[in-house]
Amino acid sequence: MTVVTTLPDRRLLLVHAxxxxxxxxxxxxxxxYAATGAHVTLVTCTLGEEGEIHxxxxxxxxxxxxxxxxxxxxxxxxxxxxxxxxxDHRFLGDAGRYRDSGMMGLATNEHPRxxxxxxxxxxxxxxxxxxxxxxxxxxxxxxxxxxxxxPDHIQAHRVAMRAVELARVQGCAPAKVYFTAMPRSxxxxxxxxxxxxxxxxxxxxxxxxxxxxxTPDEHIAARIDATEQHAAKEAAMRAHATQIPASSxxxxxxxxxxxxxxxxxxxxxxxxxxxxxxxxYGWEDDLFAGLPAGEDPDRSPVGAAGVR
Length: 308
Known about the structure:
With 308 residues, this protein is α/β, with parallel strands linked by helices. The chain has 8 helices and 7 strands, in the order βαβαβαβαβαβαααβ. Strands 3-2-1-4-5-7-6 form a 7-stranded mixed β-sheet, sandwiched between helices. The longest helix has 20 residues, at 151-170. The model is unreliable at 297-308 (pLDDT under 50).
């Protein structure tokens, strides 16, 4: 029996490489839109099997030992999604289809199931199936450098953008595509604040130009102020305990900057028309800015088999 399900008028799709990427990079944005009634769909491309383990008693789950970290991280991701209020989460092509490739240049890049080795059209096809079901108006992923150069982040970008091309032919592509970003002014402020700190994450960095990320402020398209959700983002990050130790500099910055650090996230616009904005650079404060309100007119009903 097929049960027709109506999704909310506003639908947001996020494509991330590993469990924890969603919380660190877009956690407050996800929580904000979930709390305001939008349908938030998170697609994670791998299980994060090659991640470091910061919980000593779980060390033998590592790839070189029992190789069970990926399965453990499924549970961490589920807990993080609960903290963010996100109920629609999927793994690209189902859990375990694509493996964490590890950092660029490592032998793990050559694993036969490594996401870095995935057939682009096949992987994009899995994402198109989700787009066809959910009909998101907005998608978030990484830029062509994967924000900081990790092969799985780069591949997530390639897969997401190829999926947009394929979905456009089928009439189910998102109208707007954003890339995660960090304004240079924010990075410079952070580096300045930590100059005299003993817990300085930028200690080995002489200038912002040496970082593998950082976007000129005039290229930023949107600033999402979700400071009301900063506690949800921190809870989601803490759910990823194997990857983010309690002593992480991320929490140190949060302790100094509080809701501002945890709750404000930035994006560049890669596809679509920029909506109305404010401030010196006209930054949007809503990713749906400029889009027509209401239901997508050519959206098909969603069957029970496709509802997550």
